[in-house]
């Protein structure tokens, strides 16, 4: 069973009627740029392009430029086939008349292909998944709201579990040699990362008077020490 996101101004049931015959979980949002800001996580996106092809193409382009990592299918009427091209950035398309067997087969193929192609770009450790392509991170499947530097810092630490880095090392590796800020910047970002890790905050451990490290398993608060 896959989690599907339908983007359309029309009622969900009218886009792909046969989809209701399958067991996939389906969520629906309106086809507006503002709706994408709070779009739920999905394994695959179905974009309604049956009527307004110009608006659908614009939305498809926007989805790809915002770091979309999920496969995107265009849902088309037969008359819209002549308008689609590689410029849309879609992974596949479905006619709105497609039957349940075809829909299910295409979804399965797309998700299998995505799993294989993204496996090498993902780093997983202690419940954290980092995707280097989409610059995103998740905790037990739930997205983390990270800034670019928070993401880079977390990725750097996760890639080298158990190794202790001084603040100066982290500053040069993550911020670069041309950064003129003080090492306090590292402490601030570590504190923010821990807050966003929630119950897993102790995965980033403190080695007193030395620096920080990523732990394969959470430490107890008594071991972690101070910033």
Describe the structure.
This protein has two domains: 116 residues, Response regulator (Rossmann fold), CATH 3.40.50.2300; 99 residues, Arc Repressor Mutant, subunit A (Orthogonal Bundle). It is an alpha/beta fold and 227 residues long. The C terminus is likely disordered. Helix 1 links the parallel strand 1 and strand 2. Strands 2-1-3-4-5 form a five-stranded parallel β-sheet, covered by helices on one side. The longest helix has 19 residues. The protein is 34% helix and 21% strand. Helix 5 crosses helix 6 and helix 5 packs across helix 7. The N and C termini lie far apart (44 Å). The chain contains eight helices and twelve strands.
Short description:
The chain has 227 residues and is an alpha/beta fold. Helix content is 34%, strand content 21%. Helix 5 crosses helix 6 (167-175) and helix 5 packs across helix 7.
């Amino acid at each position: 069973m896959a989690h599907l996101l339908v983007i359309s101004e029309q009622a969900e049931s009218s886009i792909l009627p046969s989809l209701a015959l399958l067991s996939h979980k389906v969520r629906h949002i309106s086809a507006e740029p503002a709706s994408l800001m709070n779009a739920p996580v999905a394994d695959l996106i179905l974009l309604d392009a049956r009527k307004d092809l110009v608006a659908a193409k614009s939305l498809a382009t926007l989805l790809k430029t915002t770091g979309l990592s999920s496969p995107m299918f265009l849902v088309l009427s037969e008359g819209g086939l002549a308008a689609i091209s590689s410029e849309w950035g879609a992974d596949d398309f479905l006619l709105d008349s497609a039957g349940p067997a075809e829909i299910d087969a295409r979804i399965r193929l797309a998700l299998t292909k995505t799993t294989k192609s993204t496996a090498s770009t993902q780093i997983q450790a202690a419940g954290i998944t980092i995707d280097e392509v989409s610059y995103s991170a998740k905790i037990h499947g739930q997205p983390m709201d990270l800034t670019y530097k928070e993401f880079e810092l977390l990725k750097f630490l996760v890639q080298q579990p158990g190794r202790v880095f001084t603040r100066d090392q982290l500053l040069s590796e993550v911020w670069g040699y041309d950064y003129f800020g003080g090492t306090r910047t590292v402490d601030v970002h570590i504190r923010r990362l821990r807050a966003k890790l929630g119950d897993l905050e102790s995965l980033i451990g403190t080695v007193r008077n030395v620096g920080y490290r990523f732990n394969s398993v959470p430490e107890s608060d008594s071991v972690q020490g101070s910033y």
